[in-house]
Amino acid sequence: MNGRGTIHSAVAAFEIPSVIKLSHMVRRPRPRIALSKREILRRDDYTCQYCGRKMRTLTLDHVVPRRLGGPHTWDNLVAACSACNRRKGGHRPAEADMLLHRAPFEPSPTAAYRFGSHLEQRQEWAQYIEGW
């Protein structure tokens, strides 16, 4: 499979490979996905977790508000549209008569999650990414 271009040495030219296969795997602890707004929105598929509208301009909402002791963690943050975030305010979802479409969770740092967005551009990688 060809990559993008060639690498030249003094006497030869080599095509840049699209995929490099390891001969053996060095085991190391899996890194965790960093907690950020971008990753929360990605985990929630850019969908408001209260009304279900899919959009690019979303805010983050603490399910249990910080003023009530809610932590700033994967399990307490969801994507919310501005209208739902204002409606919920500083209350718990049940107090505001709102339900979550899906409970928040920390995404697993699998290769499919970490590199899935790149597969749209490089389909030949798909066979090497487990779970795709």
Care to give the gist of this entry?
With 132 residues, the protein is of the alpha+beta class.
Give a written overview of the molecule.
The chain is an alpha+beta fold. It has a domain at 37-88: Orthogonal Bundle (DNA Binding (I), subunit A), CATH 1.10.30.50. Helices cover 17% and strands 15% of the residues. It has three helices and four strands. It has helices at residues 37-43, 82-88, 111-119, and strands spanning 2-8, 13-17, 59-62, 77-80. The chain has a two-stranded antiparallel ribbon with strand order 1-2. A two-stranded antiparallel ribbon has the order 3-4. The longest helix has 9 residues, at 111-119. The protein is elongated. The model has no long low-confidence stretch (mean pLDDT 86).
What's the number of helices? 3
Question: What is the CATH domain class of the domain at 37-88?
Answer: Mainly Alpha
DSSP helix fraction: 10-25%
Structural class: alpha+beta
The strands making up the biggest β-sheet line up spatially as 1-2
CATH architecture of the domain at 37-88: Orthogonal Bundle
Order of helices and strands: EEHEEHH
Number of strands: 4
CATH third-level topology of the domain at 37-88: DNA Binding (I), subunit A
Overall shape: it is elongated
Overall mean confidence score, pLDDT: 86
Q: What is the gyration radius calculated from CA atoms?
A: 21 Å
Low-pLDDT runs of 5+ residues are none
Note the main sheet: 2 strands, antiparallel
Q: Please report the distance between the alpha carbons of the first and last residues.
A: 19 Å
- Which strand-content bin applies to the residues? 15-25%
